[in-house]
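Appendix B. Chain record.
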Amino acid sequence: MGLDPAKHLGKEIAYLTSYLHKLKDLYGINVCGEGGEYETLTLDCPLFTKARIVLDDFHIVLHSSDSIAPVGVLHPLNFHVESKATTISVSDSNGISILSADKLASVFEVQGDCLGRCDAKCQSLDDASALMEVPGHKLNLSKTKRKDTFTIGCSLQVSSSNPTGLQDDLKIVLKKVEVQLTGNGLGWENVLYVHLYIGSMSEFGLANETYVKFITQEKCHFGVPSRSTIELPLLQVGLGNVYVEALVANDQTKRVLHVQSISCWAPSCIGPYSQATLHKEILHMAGQIGLDPPTMTLCAGGPTGELEQALVNSEAVAKCFGASISTSAILLVIYCSKRIPSSERIRIQEKLDMFLKQRRSLQLGKESNSTVLDPVFLYVLAPDLPKRAFVEVKPLLYAAESAETVAETTGQEIGLTVKPNYWGIKEADWHNSCFQKCIIRGKVCSVVLSITSELAMKICRESYGADQNAWSYEKFTKECCMDIISRFCIYLLDKILLDNAFYWEDATIIRFYFPTSLGFSLETLSVIFNTSFKEFAEMSQMLQMGEEPIFNLVPVLGAGKSATSMDDMITCELFAQKC
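C-alpha cells predicted for this chain:
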C-alpha cells in the first residue's frame, strides 16, 4: 500500500524512513513492516561480529503489478563477505555485555507487553453528520437484534439525477457504520468480518484506498477484520456504488490470521483485511479466489481450476486453526462470475463435491474419530469478482475449542412440539424441500432457504386457493404476491429455529438475496419484508423490532442451492449462535 517494487526495493531502511512514516499517516501501515508490508534482507547487524555481507549486484523480479499491492522480489546476483575492522558487542542498558561469540546460537525472548496498543484517531461525530447529509440521497441502515454479536448493514440510496462516485459513497457508508459502532461503545477493532459490495470491480483499487482510511492496523490492534468483496448490481435497484455489511462483536476475544508476505502455502491478502477471524469457535474466512500463492496470479484451468486452487488455499488457512473445510464447514458460499458459461456451471459443482469428498476421506483416514459436518451450500451469481476471477469461495467453519464430539441434527426435531400458526400457513411435508440446514446442537443453526419460481407459485396458490391455471410467473413480481412470499419465509425460518431450540434473538445474520430480474427496487422490497417482520413480531411476541430492519437485502444476478439453479426468486441466509 504505497510501496512500489520498482522504486523502493533495494533501498536501505534509513533512506525510506521518512516515506514509511508518511505511509503510516496515510494508510496506517506498520513502519517496521510487521504487518507484512515488506521483508528485509539483513546485510549487517551486531550478531555479525566478524564480517558483513556486501551485495554487489541484484535485479528486481515483479511478481504482481497490482495497483494497490504490487509484489516484487529482490534477487541477488553477486555478493561477497567483508571483514569488520573492529569487534562489535551488544550491551544492555547498564553497559554490561550480554552477547558473546559463544552465545550467538541462543534464542532470546522479548518480555513485556508487545501488543503496543494505541489510540486510533477518529473524526468527530459532527464531522460524521456533515458527511452523511447528502442532498437527494438516503442512508439505509439495518441491524440484527443479538446484543453481543450482530450485523450492521449500510447502503446509500441515490437519486438518478444526482449520481455520486464510489469513493464518496464509501466514505459516507463507512462513517455511518463507524458512528453506529461508537454509539454502542465499540470501534473497528470489534468488527469480525466485512462484506464489501461494490458497483464496479474496475474501482476495486479506489475502494481499498478509501477503506484503509477507516479500517487500519492502528485502530484494530487485535487484527483487521476478514473481508469478502464482490461486484453487485447495486445501481439497478436504486443504490449507490457501495454496500457494506459489518459483523460486530462486543468483546475482543477474536484471533486473526493476516498473510501479507509472499509464501508457498497461502496467498497474501490483496487488500487491507485478514485471511480468517476466529471468534467463539466460529471461523469466518475471507473470500478466496484461485490465486497461486508464490506468484499471486490466477491459476490456469478456467473456472474449475480456479475453484480447486481457491479450495486448496482455504484448506491451508483452515489448518492454521485446527479445522478443515471438508469436515468443519457449516456453510460454503460460492460466488460465480457471470462470465462462466451456463454449460460449465455443473462442472463447478462437481469439482466442489469431488474435492470435499477426497479431502474428507484423507482427513478421516488420519483421525478416525473426527466428526464430519454436513454443510449448507449457497451459490451466488455476480457480475464480477476481484482480479476478474471466475470463482470466489467463502467458507464458514466450526473450530471447536475441545476435541469433544460435535452433535449434529439433520432430521430430528428437538424444539417445541406445538408449533405456532402464523398467517394461516399450515405445516406441509413439501416445506422441507425449501431449505438446507446445518445444526450443531446447542451451538449453531445455519439455514439457507431457497424459494424458486415454482415454489413461489405453490405458496401463493395455496395462500389464495386459486386455480393453478389462473397463475403465471409475471404475477409474482407484484407486491401482493411478494407479501405472501416474505411471510412464508419468516414462518419457515421461525419453524426451523424453534424445531432446533433456537430463537430470533440468537440470529447474528439474516440476509435475503433477490435477483434484479424481479424488477423490484431495494426500497420497495425492504418495506415489504419489514412490514411482514413487524406483523410477525406483533403476533408472536418473540421478536423485538426497532426503527431499522433486522435483515439485509442483497441484489444479485441470481442465487440458489446449486450451481445449475441460481434462479431463486428469494434466497435467505440465516446464521444463529447460542451464547
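Further analysis of this model is presented in Appendix C.
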